[in-house]
Each structure stands twice: as C-alpha cells, then as structure tokens.
Amino acid sequence: MLGLLKGMGVTLKNMTKKKVTYKYPDEPVKMPERFRGIQHFDPEKCIVCNQCARVCPTDCITLTGRKHPDPNKRGKIIDTYDINFEICILCDLCTEVCPTEAIVMTRNFELAAYSRDELFKDMEWLHDNNTKIRGGSQ
C-alpha cells in the first residue's frame, strides 16, 4: 500500500510540471547552433582535390573529375560527387579537410526514406540541400 501511495505522489507531482514533448512532424524542432546535419555541396568551389573521399572513414564519398578542356586554364572540372548516406556517419571530417569549403554541414537532419536506394545522393541533391530545411534559416 505504501508503494502505491509513493507512485501516486510521483505521478501527481509530475502532472503539474511543464511538458517537454515536441510535436515533431507537425512542428519542426529547433536544432542547436553547432548541430551537424547533412552536408551541402557547392560544385563551383570544388577543385577535385579528392581529400574528402580519402579522409572519409566509411568510404561513402565518390568524387570524379577531369582536366579543364581549355588548355589555358589550370585545374579540374568536377563530373560527379555522390554520398551514400546509408553508411555515412556524419563525422564532419570531409568538411574539415576541404580547402575551399565546398562541403559544409547544414542543420538539416531529415533523411528518412522507405528504400535504401533513396539514401544515395548525387551532386544536384547535395547542392539543393541548403534550401530543404524546415522551420528556420541556415
């Protein structure tokens, strides 16, 4: 009987406290300032140095490029940049080694999908990732 009274006391005490539950799908959750979400990729800044693919611990980044067709210009042109989010651990190493800051982390974290094939993202999707954030600006 004493246990029942203690349990009811805890229940009544917590009924008066402020609720901490979020209405997540209906109302977007405000993420902290330093939250690391899905990457944003800017192909105009990429110099195809391949450092992001080399430093990735899960080998989820694929990057290809070719020499510039104009012989007067130096450097490379990017052809493909793909990330497999099925194995990406969002460790932020790819953004740390990028010398031109072509890869940056966003506050977007909504990546749920019904198929594993949908978790393979290409350069166009990653470039548009900055605009897909619900409930706030970047």
TrEMBL record:
What topology does the record note for this protein and the membrane?
Peripheral membrane protein
- Co-factor(s): [4Fe-4S] cluster
Location in or out of the cell: Cell membrane
Per the record, the GO terms for biological process are:
aerobic respiration
Catalytic reaction list: a quinone + NADH + 5 H(+)(in) = a quinol + NAD(+) + 4 H(+)(out)
Keywords in alphabetical order: 4Fe-4S, Cell membrane, Iron, Iron-sulfur, Membrane, Metal-binding, NAD, Quinone, Translocase, Ubiquinone
Question: SUPFAM superfamilies, alphabetically?
Answer: 4Fe-4S ferredoxins
For this chain's record, the cofactor binding note is: Binds 2 [4Fe-4S] clusters per subunit.
A GO cellular component entry from the record: plasma membrane
Q: Which GO terms describe its molecular function?
A: 4 iron, 4 sulfur cluster binding; iron ion binding; NADH dehydrogenase (quinone) (non-electrogenic) activity; quinone binding
Provide the binding site for [4Fe-4S] cluster 1. C46, C49, C52, C98
Top-rank taxon, per record: Bacteria
Q: What is its EC number?
A: 7.1.1.-
Give residue ranges for domain 4Fe-4S ferredoxin-type: 37-66, 79-108
- Residues that, per the record, bind [4Fe-4S] cluster 2: C56, C88, C91, C94
Sequence similarity = Belongs to the complex I 23 kDa subunit family.
Cite the record's note on assembly: NDH-1 is composed of 14 different subunits. Subunits NuoA, H, J, K, L, M, N constitute the membrane sector of the complex.
Function (record text): NDH-1 shuttles electrons from NADH, via FMN and iron-sulfur (Fe-S) centers, to quinones in the respiratory chain. The immediate electron acceptor for the enzyme in this species is believed to be ubiquinone. Couples the redox reaction to proton translocation (for every two electrons transferred, four hydrogen ions are translocated across the cytoplasmic membrane), and thus conserves the redox energy in a proton gradient.
Q: What is this protein called?
A: NADH-quinone oxidoreductase subunit I
Which taxonomic lineage is given here?
A: Bacteria, Bacillati, Bacillota, Bacilli, Bacillales
